[in-house]
Specification:
The chain is an alpha+beta fold. The chain has helices spanning about 1-10, 10-15, 35-50, 80-85, 115-125, 160-180, 190-200, 235-250, 280-295, 310-315, and strands at about 20-25, 60-65, 70-75, 95-100, 105-115, 130-140, 140, 150-155, 200-205, 210-220, 225-230, 255-265, 265-270, 305-310. It is elongated. The N and C termini lie far apart (about 55 Å).
Length: about 325
């Protein structure tokens, strides 16, 4: 529907009025959000300016005429011409906001345009679960736990097998589950823990405490491995420390070689716009798809998950 509508609309302002919502773009690793903003909005402005834009305003010109009369004409006001003031649609005309991803992380990045910036704020406040594929490499330890840093140690890894990896991940996941209930001040096997779990997804009140809801090894090709992680309050430095801890638990060392977000709430990387498709037609289509996802899952914009209050965090 959006494709056919945009194909027949030639007025730039009409198309601009449809650019109010969320789009799902694929963020490349090593690219900052500011660079994405310039590239994406620059392409949108180029597309809008290729459509029909308003003509320059006109001004009234009064000049002398014969027989003590004045001649009144209407002429183009060259101070409002695009050759004078620039293109009609510019980057500064857009409101822009994103879900957070670090420069080193690739994958799903939600972008709010104009009225969609408020929806991004709600999604951020709701702290939806994000799913990552974090890739590590056994046998090498670096200064900041990432591959591009100085190597500080090496260790043997030939004794590591997938079953050992999965056992370590299961143990770490169970530890995080206990941590969630400890923040409530209740035992994981108690009735109080059951009542809290019934209320919905448990989230810490603090936005600085990373919580892992699921961990599993999805690829193992020694020395490289990929862990699928379901988390909130996460950050890329924490993932580096996590990969280092996994290496130590396996009686070896490891460093992180890549972090990719494959899902944010109900938005997946399958629907993300690649950088080559950050153009007006594709953005309008993607925005319509994101609007449909929000309509199907309205809870994403309503804070209904269980948040552990300060009172609940007091030990019993």
């Amino acid at each position: 529907m959006q494709n056919s509508m945009l194909a027949h609309i030639k007025d730039a302002n009409t198309v601009l009025n449809t650019l109010n919502g969320i789009i799902n773009v694929y963020k490349p690793a090593g690219v900052s959000v500011n660079n994405i903003k310039r590239s994406l909005l620059g392409n949108l402005c180029k597309g809008l300016n290729s459509l029909q834009t308003r003509p320059p305003i006109e001004r009234v010109v009064i000049s002398d005429a014969a027989h003590d009369r004045y001649k009144v004409d209407v002429a183009t006001d060259w101070s409002d011409h695009v050759l004078t003031v620039g293109e009609r649609h510019q980057i500064s005309d857009f409101k822009f906001n994103t879900s957070h991803l670090s420069r080193l992380t690739s994958g799903v990045l939600l972008v709010g345009l104009n009225a969609g910036t408020q929806q991004i704020h709600r999604i951020r406040d709701n702290r939806l679960i994000r799913v990552y594929h974090v890739t590590g490499e056994l046998g090498t330890s670096t200064e900041n736990n990432f591959k591009d840093s100085l190597v500080i140690a090496r260790a043997n890894y030939t004794h590591v097998w997938p079953d050992k990896m999965n056992a370590i991940l299961s143990s770490m996941q169970a530890s995080h589950q206990r941590k969630m209930f400890e923040l409530c001040g209740v035992h994981i096997q108690s009735n109080s823990a059951f009542e809290i779990a019934k209320r919905g997804l448990i989230r810490p009140a603090s936005q600085t405490v990373p919580i892992l809801y699921g961990m599993k090894c999805v690829q193992f090709d020694r020395p490289k491995f990929t862990i699928e992680i379901h988390a909130i309050n996460e950050h890329v430095k924490y993932f580096g420390e996590l990969i280092q801890e996994i290496g130590l638990q396996l009686h070896s060392v490891a460093c992180c070689t890549g972090v990719r977000c494959i899902r944010h709430g109900h938005f997946t990387n399958k629907d993300s716009l690649l950088r080559s498709n950050w153009h007006l037609q594709e953005v309008v289509t993607n925005m319509a798809q994101c609007r449909q996802i929000i309509d199907e899952h309205p809870n994403m914009l309503r804070q209904e998950n269980v948040e552990l209050t300060e009172k609940e965090q007091e030990p019993q």
